[in-house]
Amino acid sequence: MDIVISDSKQELGEKAAAHGAALLREAIRRQGKAAIVVATGASQFEMLAALVAAEGIDWACVTAFHLDEYIGLPMTHPASFRKYLKERFVDRLPAPPAAFHYIHGEGDARAECRRVGEILRRHPIDVAFIGIGENGHLAFNDPCADFQAEEPYLVVDLDEACRRQQLGEGWFRTLDDVPRQAISMSIPQIMKADSIVCTVPDARKAKAVRGAVEGPVTPDLPSSILQRHKRATLFLDRDSASLLGR
């Protein structure tokens, strides 16, 4: 795992986007197409804004996938990740992508896992744009995460720390409003990405960052699995890196 530390959240987002854009351009040059996974949340605001503004990416050659989504939440809800990605990513691209495969959290969740999983199997991921949660989760894989999952997408239970993070970021009015389950890309599927761009600002993530970088690889801190990825780059600001010992 490589680590890049920036002086501000804005600089962090710009550096992460520049790195991801370079990886995308190279994948398109090499194979004529690319596939990406896109995360959501407050930590991704600056990175996504810089990514959609990056020059030289032929978005018509890019197929994109949705990392995770709440179960039972309509797209009209302010916390919907489909709404987030449409408004902050897809609608801001200079040209439409080849496809964007949203996760639909209404209806039969396990059938939806199978549907989007089958599509994903046909599009090996070149770049995964992800973050790390306050509890160390990757996507919505909370502790204790399944490192051996065989399916690309899973129905997962959200722990209280994860739900409190969503409340704290202002997506919901009360903790009871935060859904208790979600559809999430699995840990093994995330690790199949050729490159990972992990954007993690803010002091509230510092403890999780320290565990992910310096602690043992354990399902009790899902993001620690990134230590085993050959092309993962962790983009931090001074706050999120503040507890690192090296």
Structural summary, described in words:
- It is a single chain.
- The protein has one domain: Rossmann fold (3-Layer(aba) Sandwich), CATH 3.40.50.1360.
- The chain has 246 residues and is an alpha/beta fold.
- The protein has seven helices and ten strands.
- Strand 9 (195-200), helix 7 and strand 10 form a beta-alpha-beta unit.
- The strands form two sheets. Strands 1-10-9-6-2-3-5 form a seven-stranded parallel β-sheet, with helices on both faces. Strands 4-8-7 form a three-stranded antiparallel β-sheet.
- Helix 1 packs across helix 2.
Structural key phrases:
single chain, 246 residues, alpha/beta, seven-stranded parallel sheet, three-stranded antiparallel sheet, globular
Q: What is the topological layout?
A:
Blueprint: E1 2-6, H1 9-31, E2 34-38, H2 45-53, E3 62-66, E4 68-70, H3 81-88, E5 99-101, H4 109-121, E6 127-130, E7 153-157, H5 160-168, E8 181-185, H6 187-191, E9 195-200, H7 206-214, E10 232-237
Helix pairs in contact: 1-2
